[in-house]
Amino acid sequence: MTSLVLGALALAAAVFAAPIDDRDTLREELSAWKASGAGVYAAANGLFPEHVDGASEDAELAVFAASKAAAIALQEAHPLAQFSVDTPFAMMTSDAFASWVAASRPARNASALPESSKGISLATNSVDWKKSGCVAPVKDQGGCGSCFAFSAVAATESAYCLAHHRRRTLFSEQQTLSCGPGDGCKGGFEFESLRWIASNGLCTSETYPYTNGQSATAHQCQATCQKLPMPFLDVPLLRGEDTLEKALNTQPVAVAVAAGNSAWQLYKRGILTGGCDGTIDHAVLAVGYGAAESPFFVIKNSWGNRWGEFGFMRLLRGVGGTGLCHIAEDISYPVLRKPHNNLNQKWRYDPGTKQLKHLTHAGFCLDMGSDEGTRAHLYTCNRAIVLQIFDRVSTLL
């Protein structure tokens, strides 16, 4: 990666030694980038480093030229992927981008690391949880180092959805960030947040929306929303590429990656095959695996849908150990409780309303519908519906 960066700088220097017509072309391209969705987003979220924002035109052109040169060098080194300045991070130097990413995840004590598996993932099938209805849309952490909260909540949303007949509920990253473990916008660990969510429950994003998108200081915890309990037994912390593959056969999985590099900064599409050998500094959600030109894992990021494949990325699978970009160094996910078949563990009788309320489907009651004969089904709680009122429940519970 060092040689690649030096090559990019050499190419950028060549741009400034080129005829004035080439500089005019670069100036036009930079102007077009600033007016693009990526450029507008970058300006709104403070993704212009301090030494570039408001500086001379030459300084801006130098950074843009370096990003263009890095994209060309990356393309030559990793032809299965495409790299471009059509990204919100094009006007960040490689060092500034690395620092921005690293702010999301502090270093971890080696004694806390899970035991490594040396197995290589070899599955020939494919898994795509995006098609399940249990992967929430790509979200955007903005200028706060809250990737750990987004990764944990994404894993929570998928697990909760799978436990509730694929009925998707969006949960609160802001509550996880402001009230849970970690150091706010200075970073944290997704597996610690997942364990906190499993123990404490979580509010929905509707009742506790994300407000830290344009702030680098986590907002104070608000305790006014009603948390939903989680049907989770445990949150293991595992390691190994083959372990990740097995976990993805069951559900989407929170993982940590080494993302503070030019390969992630300028990634546009395709299968990333290298350029990310640093330490883990970012958390995402793994949502599947498959094969095209090469085997790959699929991750969902929290940098909005202007980055990568509409917010997703494919990484080479089958390298063994902790995988490419260390995608399998920290693997965590909620282990779901097995459903019980007896009625008493699914319903709670409310003597005040005389209704049988579902324990895991908030706001839903047992309704003895009378259409085409009496039949029991789940329906929105409504005391005005006579067939939801039960004076005696001893024969049911």
UniProtKB/TrEMBL annotation:
<keyword id="KW-0865">Zymogen</keyword>
<dbReference type="GO" id="GO:0008234">
    <property type="term" value="F:cysteine-type peptidase activity"/>
</dbReference>
<keyword id="KW-0732">Signal</keyword>
<comment type="similarity">
    <text>Belongs to the peptidase C1 family.</text>
</comment>
<feature type="domain" description="Peptidase C1A papain C-terminal">
    <location>
        <begin position="123"/>
        <end position="335"/>
    </location>
</feature>
<feature type="signal peptide">
    <location>
        <begin position="1"/>
        <end position="17"/>
    </location>
</feature>
<dbReference type="Pfam" id="PF00112">
    <property type="entry name" value="Peptidase_C1"/>
</dbReference>
<dbReference type="InterPro" id="IPR025660">
    <property type="entry name" value="Pept_his_AS"/>
</dbReference>
<dbReference type="InterPro" id="IPR035992">
    <property type="entry name" value="Ricin_B-like_lectins"/>
</dbReference>
<dbReference type="InterPro" id="IPR013128">
    <property type="entry name" value="Peptidase_C1A"/>
</dbReference>
<dbReference type="InterPro" id="IPR039417">
    <property type="entry name" value="Peptidase_C1A_papain-like"/>
</dbReference>
<protein>
    <recommendedName>
        <fullName>Peptidase C1A papain C-terminal domain-containing protein</fullName>
    </recommendedName>
</protein>
<dbReference type="GO" id="GO:0006508">
    <property type="term" value="P:proteolysis"/>
</dbReference>
<dbReference type="InterPro" id="IPR000668">
    <property type="entry name" value="Peptidase_C1A_C"/>
</dbReference>
<dbReference type="InterPro" id="IPR038765">
    <property type="entry name" value="Papain-like_cys_pep_sf"/>
</dbReference>
